[in-house]
Design brief:
The chain is built from eight helices and 14 strands. It has helices at residues 55-61, 77-80, 86-93, 103-112, 114-117, 176-181, 204-214, 230-236, and strands at 2-7, 37-42, 45-49, 69-71, 97-101, 129-133, 138-140, 143-152, 155-162, 165-168, 187-191, 218-222, 241-243, 249-251. The strands form two sheets. Strands 6-5-4-3-2-1-14 form a seven-stranded mixed beta sheet. The chain has a seven-stranded mixed beta sheet with strand order 7-8-9-10-11-12-13. Helix 7 (204-214) links the parallel strand 11 and strand 12 (218-222). 42% of the residues are buried.
């Protein structure tokens, strides 16, 4: 199982339009963060977790020539607005792509992209997406996919655990039942917005508290704003905690 970070930025990305801060002007590519998404390769199949606003750029940059399934965490713009790009994969693969999420996510998806789901079956100008509502663990390409419910502000959204790896992005609180599902990880990926508290995202200190309770062998922080300069923040982190960056590849079982 291999995971590639396609984007590790927050909803506005880094550099931020119009910003002249040190991070936004940095020449270190690890400070350049596209909108959040990862690619999970399982048994020769490509699973996209979230289809970000920057997906076309990500697909070209990382040579993604096939998408076999999509897992959605929630239906905010930076996580779903790349969905229209699935048209080319429908053409290349000659078939529809299954897309999984909880009920609020799928309901919102079908409303936001109404033109996709109300098009006639023979329409060639829209993506072919088959939606599936997740209510419990399910199997995909020979692996168990375990949805992890977390809070994004007041909204209940999903992270995912596959084997010894878990991916949780926009998150402000994780309840005890979900924390129990995260024990025994080798790799834990956790959204961490900035230093200051935020109503719908974990701050750095809050994320470190969560990581300490999960006890993963390695934790990677993602969904980061321009508050975080890669080298500076990396030097401040405890052992086993790392900043992710676009293009980083991880291998797990």
């Amino acid at each position: 199982m291999k995971l590639t970070f396609l984007g590790t930025g927050t909803s506005v990305g880094v550099p931020v339009i119009g910003c002249k801060c040190e991070v936004c002007r940095s020449s270190d590519q690890r400070n350049h963060r596209l909108r959040p998404s990862v690619l999970l390769e399982l048994n020769g199949n490509n699973i996209l977790i979230d289809s970000s606003t920057d997906f076309r750029q990500q697909a070209l940059r990382y040579g993604i020539n096939r998408i076999d399934a999509i897992l959605l965490t929630h239906a905010h713009a930076d996580h779903i607005f790349g969905l229209d790009e699935m048209r080319i994969y429908n053409y290349l693969q000659k078939g529809a792509i299954p897309c999984y999420g909880n009920r609020p996510t799928i309901d919102s998806l079908r409303e936001i992209f109404k033109y996709i789901f109300t098009a006639s079956p023979d329409s060639k100008g829209v993506p072919k997406i088959i939606t599936h509502i997740i209510e419990e663990k399910f199997s995909l390409f020979g692996h168990e996919i375990c949805p992890i419910e977390v809070y994004h502000g007041k909204s209940k959204i999903l992270g995912y655990r596959v084997g010894s790896l878990a991916y949780i992005t926009d998150c402000s609180r994780i309840e005890e039942d979900s924390l129990r599902l995260l024990q025994g990880l080798h790799i834990f990926i956790l959204g961490t917005l900035r230093y200051k508290p935020h109503p719908t995202h974990l701050s750095l200190s809050q994320a470190l508290e969560v990581a300490a309770r999960v006890h993963s062998q390695k934790t990677y922080l993602t969904h980061m704003s321009h508050d975080f300069e890669y080298t500076k923040v990396s030097q401040e982190l405890p052992p086993g905690i790392h900043l992710a960056y676009d293009g980083l590849e991880l291998v797990s079982d």
